[in-house]
Design goal:
With 404 residues, this protein is an alpha+beta fold. Helix content is 51%, strand content 14%. The protein is built from eleven helices and ten strands. The chain has a four-stranded mixed beta sheet. Strands 2-3-7-6 form a four-stranded antiparallel beta sheet, with no helix packed on it.
Amino acid sequence: MNTMPSTPSPTSATPPRPTRPAAPGDEVDELLALARRVADREIRPAAAEEEAAGVFPRATFALLSQLGLLGLPYPGEHGGGDQPYEVYLRVLEELAAARLTVGLGVSVHTLACHALASFGDARQRERWLPGMLGGELLGGYCLSEPTAGSDAASLRTRATRDGDDWVINGTKAWITHGGIADFYTVFARTGEDGPGGISAFLVPGDAPGLTAAPPERKMGMAGSPTAQLHLDGVRVPDERRLGAPGRGLPIALAALDAGRLGIAACAVGLARAALEEALAFVARRRQFGRPVADFQGTRFLLAELATGIEAGRALCLAAARLKDAGRPFTAEAAMAKLFCTDTAMRVTVDAVQLMGGYGYSADHPAERYLREAKVLQIVEGTNQIQRLVISRELLRNAAPADAG
C-alpha cells in the first residue's frame, strides 16, 4: 500500500511516451481468454481458503510471469508484453475478479517496475528489467513512511553518498509484498527538505541491512502481506539510482498516476465479482413463494449496481487511452480511482444486503469482498486526496477570471 502526496505535482522528469496502438481484436481476445482461464482454473478455486489462512500465492505469480502476464504494459525488448495500458487494465480486472490479492499484487509489481522502465537509462533497463518483467521476480514500491503518507514529500528515509555507493537509513510503511519481494523501488532523501531533495533507488530484496517487520493485521486481504521495511545502513551502488539525484518525487508521482488506474481496474473486477455472487443468490433464493430476483426493489438495485460498474470501467479505460496516446491523464486517473473504488464499496455493501444473513456469513465470499473493497479507497492515495488532485487539475486548466 502507498499513499499519494497532496503536494502539487512537479513536472515529469521525462515527457510522456505513447505506447503502440491497441492490439488487433483477435490478439486482445486471446490474451483476455488466457487471463480468464488462469483466473478460473488457478486463482479462484483456492482464493477463499488461502485468504482465510493468510497464504500468499507466490506460485500464481510465478505462473503469471511464465505466461507473460506480469509485465504486460512494458516493452517486449526487455521481456514485457508490449501491450497498451488499456489492454493491461482489462487483464487486471479479470485477475482481481478472481482474487484481489492477485490483481492488486500485479498492480503493485507493475508500479514497482515503472521507475526503471520509464526513467532508467538504457544500460539499467537492459541489465535489470528483463528479470523484473519475465524472470518470476516480484516487486514492491516504497514511498510511504510512518509519518509520511499523503504528504510523501515529507519523507525522512535518507540516502547518503559514500564513494560510489549510497547508504540508506530509514523506515518505510504499508509496503505491499513487504518482506517477500525480490526488489523494491525505494524513495529516499538525498538533499534538502521538501519535494526537491528526494531520489529513487532500485534495492534488492536481499540487501544486507534490509529487514521487514511482521505483516500488519488487516481488515481484509490477509493473503497479501503488508509490512514496514527497515533500512539500516543498506548500501546500494550509484548505478542503482534511477533518474537524476533530487528528481525522485516526479518519478514517484508519475508511477502513481499509472498505479491509480491499476487500482481502478482492480475495483471494477472486485465489484463485478460481488455483483455476480449477488445475482446468482437472488436468482435461486425464494421468499414469499417466488425468487427474490422477481421483486422490483431487487431488480432496480441490481440495475444501479451494474450501471455503476460499467461506468467505472468506461472511465478507467478512457483514462488508459489518454496514457497510451502520451497525453496528460492525471485528473482522469484520479477520477477513475475515485469513482471505481467508491463504486466497489457500494456494490459490495449492497451485495451483502441482498444476500441477508448469508452475505454476512464467511461461508460466502460476499463478506470478504466487502472487507477487501475498503482498502481500495485508501491505497495509491486516499479518495480524499483524489478529490484534491482532480480539483487542482481543474483549476490549473481553467481560464483566468476577468480582472475588475
